[in-house]
Amino acid sequence: MLVRFFLFLLLFSNYSLHSYADEKQLIINRLLKINNFTFNFKQISQGKIETGTCFLVFNNKLRCNYFNEKKKEIIINNKTLVVIIKKFNKNYFYPVSKSPFQKILNKNSLINLIKESNIELNDNIDVIYVDKDERKISVFFDKKNYELIGWKIKDKLQNEIYFTLKIQSTNTIIKDRLFKIPSTN
Fold it and tell me: Alpha-carbon distance 16 to 177, whole Å?
């Protein structure tokens, strides 16, 4: 009886590990087919909810337009992140290398993150990555179609940012000028 129990436990744990490996590969296969996508988002940070729309082009290009009174925009183009507050005519520049975005916006980095991460199967597929500095990045994928549906990161001030997204279109023509970095103030 004890032998059967251990055999069952061994088979079950082997199946679970194999299942997680399959989930990772299915996510990676889905990502390999995508060059860009447009999505709507909801961002929660410090109890504040913001919404908007974004354009993401692998590798390292993102533009988000927030639907708020400040007319906030974020542009990431390769190594530069700019937060634009149109209402106050202000631009704030940051290096992408100091943000977790470098792991998410570069397709190869995102694939490596997935390979090196732990997976939790909940309502969605949660990919949990902890870097060498103990910073945690959680990336979420839909269980049915393996699409990216969000992430949870900490910014440089250690504020937790929870970002959910709904992809509207993939692999469409997105003009490069959309990611033009404005000049400094």
Answer: 46
Q: Are the C-beta atoms of residues 142 and 149 closer than 8 Å to each other? A: yes
pTM of the predicted model as reported, rounded to 2 decimal places:
0.83
Within-domain flag for 1? no
Number of domains in the chain: 1
CATH of the domain at 96: 2.50.20.10
In a domain, 56, yes or no: yes
Element (H, E) at 138: strand 136-141
Domain interval for residue 135: 19-179
Region label for 10, one of left (φ > 0), alpha (ψ between -120 and 50) or beta (otherwise): alpha
Tens digit of each residue's pLDDT (9 = 90 or more) over 102-139: 888 999 999 999 999 999 999 999 999 987 777 889 99
In contact, 60 and 77? CB cutoff 8 Å: yes
Rounded CA separation 33/22 (Å): 17
